[in-house]
Amino acid sequence: MGLLWGLIIGGLAGWIAGNLMKGQGFGLLGNIAVGLVGGFLGGLVFRLLGLAATGIIGSLVMSVVGAVLLLFIVGKIKGRR
Q1: Is 27 helix (H, G, I), strand (E, B) or coil?
Q2: Number of compact structural domains in the chain
Q3: Three-state DSSP class for residue 55
């Protein structure tokens, strides 16, 4: 059941981050991938800042923050403004 929640949260986080950063999502698999990597990145950032995310909503917020950061970094590497 944890894997299913991870995929659902990853998909939602990727979709939200895609809408925030470039105005559209990346498709189902792209959203899940961005959200899962964003969740990992968000977890690292939250730990470095001494923050903790608990529950489904906390995991979603952490994943969205990480996914937005991921998309920002990728955009800078690709040279987009």
Answers
A1: coil
A2: 1
A3: helix
